[in-house]
Amino acid sequence: MTGDTDDIIALRAALAAAEARAEVAEARAASAEAQVAHLKHLIARMRQDRFGASSERGRRLLAQLELELEELETTLAEDAPENAADPAVRTTAPRSNRGRQPLRADLPRERVVIPAPTQCPCCGSDRLSKLGESVTETLEVIPRQFKVIQTVREKFTCRDCESITQPPAPFHPIARGRAGPWLLSTILCDKFLQHLPLNRQSDAFAREGIDL
What we know:
single chain; two-stranded antiparallel sheet; 5 helices; flat; Transposase_TnpC_homeodom; Transposase; coiled coil; Transposase_IS66_central; Transposase-related
């Protein structure tokens, strides 16, 4: 009888601990749901406020709130099946161990081969045969480069009538401007897609030695 009594006491203690854990989980879920509702309310108000949505500070704050909302919703989605199951019989689902995805195959590759040894480091023999190779890929970026395109218009004079002829001047998107089409498209994309003001772009060009 003593053994049965001990088992009953142990089961009651385990049940009480499970109920306590369930109450804590429910409280956390309720708090997270309240935070989600509050964040959704703030995001909706900021989207309705034209000034807040159009200002740079408002965009950063809105992006931060949306990120917090996404993290909370992900946490709730992950905790939902765990709270629904009995902690005593709950099993942990196996996680898929995926490595990093390889770099895109269409990116240009620059092959740098480290010089191989000419002698065996163990015995000193020079009779080495290639067994294979290990390739480590590192992603790099090439800094942008500027160039000046000189469009030459040659002048000719007629030896018979002494008139002067010359091809017409090339077309420029901005009259009497020096910025080419590709440079202008870069500036416009940075302004309207990356939300970089023109003064910041001018400072960035100045750091690269370009005075616009």
